[in-house]
Structures are given as structure tokens and as C-alpha cells.
Amino acid sequence: MGDRNIDALLSEQRRYPPPPEFADANAGPGFYEQDPDAFWEREGRERVDWFTPFSTLREWTPPYAKWYLGGKLNACYNCVDRHVEAGAGDKVAFHWEGEPVGDRLAVTYADLQRRVVRFANTLKKIGVGRGTNVAIYLGMVPDLPVAMLACARLGAPHTVVFGGFSADSLASRINDMGCQVLITQDASWRRGRPLPLKPVADEAMTNAPGVRRCLVVRRTEVDTPMTAGRDLWYHEASAHVDDDAANCPCEPMDAEDPLFLMYTSGTTAKPKGIVHTTGGYLVGVATTHHYVFDIKQSTVYWCAADIGWITGHSYIVYGPLCNGVTSVLYEGTPDFPDKDRWWDIVERYGVTVLYTAPTAIRTHMKWGPEFARRHDLSSIRLLGSVGEPINPEAWVWYRTHIGGGRAPVVDTWWQTETGMILISPLPGVSTLKPGSAGRPFIGVTPSVVDDHGYPVTPGEGGFLVLREPWPAMLRGIHGDPSRYLATYWSRFPGDYLVGDGARVDDDGDYWLLGRIDDVMNVSGHRISTVEVESALVDDPTVAEAAVCARPDELTGQAIVAYVTLKGGRDGSRQAVATLRQHVAEKIGRLAMPANIVFTPELPKTRSGKIMRRLLRDIAEEGTLGDTTTLADPSVVEEIRTRAAAAA
Ligand code: PRX
After folding, report:
1. Which NCBIfam families match (predicted)?
2. Which has the closest alpha carbon to 523: 142, 164, 195, 185?
3. Whose CA is nearest to atom 10 of ligand 1?
4. Is the terminal CB of the chain with fewer CB neighbours within 10 Å at N or C?
């Protein structure tokens, strides 16, 4: 986060007490006074159904926690079957809105159950059972939550790979997890055109020979290559498959059995497979969803993220469905066919809770409030934000233009690793401050410490750490326990290192200040500098590369790459385009540098380490225009001068 934003946060004085409409909120006065263990014990017993009740709340042997020990449950049963059994089969689980206008579907809990059972039985036919690892590479189609829940039903851990990731990224995740089955689709709709996914999956599978079977969901009519013996159309494979839940029981899973892996970028080139388990995760996400978004029977909830990220797992699929809520699921982009598409959706379904990211809010801000004004947004009662620090200006715009000047905005802080929201205001309790994520949730014990691990005085910035375990906490990094220790537990032994800077004010409210490590946050997507660097040096023309982030008004941060070409050659505009494309192919378009600065040398210390701070300083001056190229021989001053000149 840039210094300008931090200054804006420090001087923010606006305050918004809980509105009277939230007098009967799920979390009211006294909420924070509850005993954490009693709270999580009660939520564990009441919020989910267990086949065998748990006997022990938690076991904490730092840095490993276990929750709800001895309990047996099934996440799919909790998200689907129990609602049907309780008579809510006719309630809409989600209103699916396809990208092509008019392409929509209301899926009730009873429909969802039939779809999930059919999917699970189809998976069984191709050998998926308890412990079979499954990769899912789908866009925002109804089959995405269905496939996840079908895996959960069978006890098959899944990993969902965001549709924007490249074949290489997909293959490395499949290989790391040892997936035997891949679920994908022919193509997904992207601004009116089909964007092929299956060819990307094919390329990935050439480097992931462990995949025995590939199930392909048909979404468009594009020609799709199929490999005999390996690939199956889902609609064909499932055609005569039983969808009666009575014949497809939910596998009783141990509370600590893995539910899924979610890969996320760390400070090395290799993404980490974050392990989430069944019991603690489900209780954690359903509980926080209930209180933070003040969920009622009548709530129409829309989290406008992609299910391919942790936000979608926790707060589109598992949390809301466990709570039996009616949600919206949207396939497309906010500006197709026009920039009012989101507001059309809010009006059509009467959305009461909207949860999105600051980068999306800033994009709508740039387009102007007139698109929102075309629609009746009066159904909205609560707004949420996640993914990066929200600047007060965007916060206030969101409340004013989307929330009708009345809806509280909850800025929720959490991570892939935390699984659930850890710091957030509660709409019936908290006095909101634009730019602050409010207070830790019950049982969450963060601290802000200095270089030596000592708590800083209130108001001062420092490293955010977490002390006590929470139910949805990661259970490690798949296949790499030493990396788990090194990444999170070695800097301040005994404390979980978050990787963000933070400050606590006199009221005990938290202000997140952005990443303090080599992780960048572009449009709420987490990307490591090293990952982009290794994609760049993988290009045969590149000798060396260093990557850092600069502040960007829309995307929060944007990626700047400093590149030395082999033979000290100058880079051309063509070279810029080629390298950006290369990064898109290695990682995905989300990791493409906004700027590439060519330099015959990178500034280094005497021991040969690249001086990233220096490069970051240059980038943060905010003077780099789009796709800057530089070719001057002398190093830092020259880069700086050129960067400034290119503004
Ligand atoms: O830097 C923080 C930022 O996003 C990081 C986690 O990214 P990821 O694992 O991809 O999960 C994103 C969705 C939960 C954090 O380390 N971040 C997330 N939410 C906020 C935030 N920064 C400030 N305020 C937030 N509300």
C-alpha cells in the first residue's frame, strides 16, 4: 500500500455508529464479552450437524491446532441435505445469473441435492472415493459449487484452480496435490465470447500424467478436443446416473480430515497448498458468515468474488450454504453488456448483502455513480469489503452510492490461510471507521509487534501476528511441513506471522497497512515477486529480473519488472509485449507486469543481492507510465531519472 493511502488512513476521522435497523442484529451489545471457548463450543454444537458429536473443543500444540476432536460430519450434508430434510427444499440456494443476458437459473436446495448426488455418483463411476484428490478448473457455472460439494460428499479433497490461471499453474497444482481426476469445461463466457478452458486443461494434462480422467462440463458450443479413454463429457457420463440422495450417502468424515487445498502465492516461486479441514473450517466460516453479515431467513446474499479463490470457497460455497441462505452466483464481468450489470442483478434478485473487493469498488467509482442510479438498490442493507486495504474514499463512495447512505460497510480482514474472517466490524455492535477493519472476532488474539517481537504502543505500526488458534486455521502446507514452520512460525517463534503490517488505535480497532513481505496484492489477487521473476527469467532472452509493486489507483498495486536482457541488449516495445505475454502463459494474465523497465544492470549489494527496496522506492514514486522501457547503462540514478521522465 502506498504512503499516500497510509496518510489518508491516519487522518481519517469519520465515524458511523450502528444504525437503528440493526438493533436486533445476530451480534448485539455484549457479543464480545462472551467466553471464547464457550462460544466456539456452542457454535460447534449448534451451527453444524454431526454424525458423531465432538468430544474435545481443541488441542493446541503450537504450531498445530486441531478442533472439534472426535467429531464426525460431512460438509455436503451440512450445506445441502440437512436443509432439504428440514423442509427447506423449495428455498432457493442460489440464483445463477449467466453472462449472456437472460441466461439464468434458480437452483433450490432440493435441486442442489439432486445435482450434487448425480455429480457424486458420476465421480464414483470413474473411481473417485474417499481420499481421491480432484482438481477443478471451472468458471462460475452452477456445476462449480456442485462439483465441490460432490467431492465433499464422497470425502474426496478438492482443489479449485481459478480459471484465469495458465496451463503451467494448473499442472503444478495438480502434480503437487497428486490429483487423479480433473473437472473442467469446454469454454467460459467472457464479455460475449467463449474463452476456451479445455485446451488449457489439455496442455496442463500433458505435464500432469497422474490425471486418469477428465470430466468436461459443456457450457458453450465451441469445438472441443477430447482424448479417448481419458476425457468424458459430463452430460454424457451423468445421463443415466441416479440422483436420489438415499442411494448416495454422505461419507462420515473426521473433523480433522482435509476438505480442500487452496494454493496461494508465498515468497518463493512455488505456490503453497494450504490445507483446510472439515470440522473447524465449516464451523468457522458458517459462524463468521452468520454474525458478520447478519444473516436472516430473508437474506439475499451476493458475494461477487470468484469461487476459485478462498473468498469464494468460504463465503460463496461453504459458509452461506451451511447457513441455508439464498445467494446470487454471477458468471460474468461487471461491465457486460454494460457497466450497470451488477446493479441490474441487485435489483432483479433484491440483494440485501453485497460482499466485494476494493478494486471493484474503485472501478465502479471510476465509471461514475450514474450506472448504479439506473436501478433500485433499496434492498441493500449491508455491504462488505475484502481482499486489500480499502481507502476511505472508496469506503465512503460504496456506502453512499451503493448503500443508499445508510448501509453499514464491514471491512473484513482475513487470508487464504486463516480460512475465515478474523478481523471485522459487526454491523449491530461496531462504530465504523472508513479504512479500519475493526476488532478481532471472538477468540482471535492478534498483536502488533516490532522487529524484536515486542508489542508496539497503540497507534504505532508493526508486524501483525496471531497468538491463539481459531477453528478454520490452516492445518499446514501440503507435503511441506518445514515450509509451514519457516513461513509462519520462525520469525517470531510461537506466533503466526501474517505478512501484513497493521496499527491499532486507542479504541482497539485495527488498521491494515498492506503486505510487509515479497507478496504483492493486485486487484485483491495475491502474487509473489519471486513467482513473476522466475517466469521472466524463464524467457530465453532474459538474463535477470527483479519485480516489485507500485501503488495503483484502481488495482491497489501494479507490478513493475526491472529486466536485464542477455548480452546487455536494449528492450524494444515488442520485447515488452513478448515478456508480458510470457508471464501470462507461465502464471496467468493476472500476473502480467504493468511496467517493464529494461536496465543493463540491476542494483545489487556487495554480496550480490538485488536491492529490492531501492527498486520499490523508485516504483513507488508513482512516476512510471504504462509499459515503460529504459535502456540507459548506469544503474539506480539513471533508472530513477528515466522513470521520472517517463511519467
Ligand atoms: O494483505 C492482506 C490482504 O490480502 C491478504 C490475503 O490474501 P488472500 O490469501 O489472497 O486472501 C484474500 C481474501 C481473504 C492479506 O494478507 N487483505 C485481505 N483482506 C484485507 C486485506 N488487507 C486489508 N484489509 C482487508 N480487509
Report:
1. Ac_CoA_lig_AcsA (TIGR02188), PRK00174.1 (NF001208)
2. 164
3. 526
4. C
> How far away, in angstroms, is 524 Cα from ligand 1 center?
7
**CA-closest residue to ligand 1 atom 21:** 388
Ligand 1 pocket test, pick from 274, 362, 433, 500 with the greatest ligand atom count within 8 Å of Cβ, gives 500
In the chain, the percentage of residues whose pLDDT exceeds 70 is 94
Atom of ligand 1 nearest to the CA of 417: 9
H-state helical runs in 508-555: 529-537
Cell numbers describing residue 105: 437459473
Nearest CA to ligand 1 atom 25: 413
Q: What is the distance between the alpha carbons of residues 443 and 33, in angstroms, rounded to a whole number?
A: 11
φ/ψ of residue 77, rounded to 5: -55, -45
Q: Specify the residue with its C-alpha closest to ligand 1, atom 2.
A: 388
Q: What is the pTM of this model?
A: 0.94
Q: What is the pLDDT of residues 144-186, one digit of tens each?
A: 999 999 999 999 999 999 999 999 999 999 999 999 999 999 9
Residue 492: CB atoms within 10 A of its CB come to: 17
ipTM score of complex: 1.00
According to DSSP, the residues that pair with 187 across neighbouring strands are: 196
- CA of 357 relative to ligand 1 center, distance in Å: 10
List strands edge to edge, sheet with 353-356. 104-108, 92-97, 326-330, 300-303, 353-356, 382-385, 409-411
Exposure class string for 216-243: b at 16+ Cβ within 10 A, else e: bbbbbeeebeeeeeebbebeebbeebeb
Segment 226-252, tens digit of pLDDT:
999 999 999 999 999 999 999 999 999
| Torsion on CA atoms 273, 141, 366, 405, rounded to nearest 10 | -100
Q: For the residues of 549-593, what is the DSSP string, one character each? A: EEEETTTEEEEEEEEEEGGGPPPPHHHHHHHHHHHHHHTBGGG--
Can you give the pLDDT at residue 567?
Answer: 85
Looking at ligand 1, which atom is closest to the CA of residue 412? 26
Distance CA 34, CA 552 (A): 41
Pocket of ligand 1 (CB under 6 A): 264, 310-311, 386-389, 411-416, 437, 499-500, 512, 515, 521, 526
CA atoms within 13 A on the CB side of 223: 0
Q: What are 359-363's contacts with CB under 8 Å, separation 24+? A: 359/387, 359/388, 359/523, 359/524, 359/554, 359/555, 359/556, 360/304, 360/334, 361/385, 361/390, 361/394, 361/397, 361/398, 361/402, 362/391, 362/394, 362/553, 362/554, 363/334, 363/554
DSSP 52: B
- Please tell me the distance from the alpha carbon of residue 151 to that of residue 145, in angstroms, as a whole number: 10
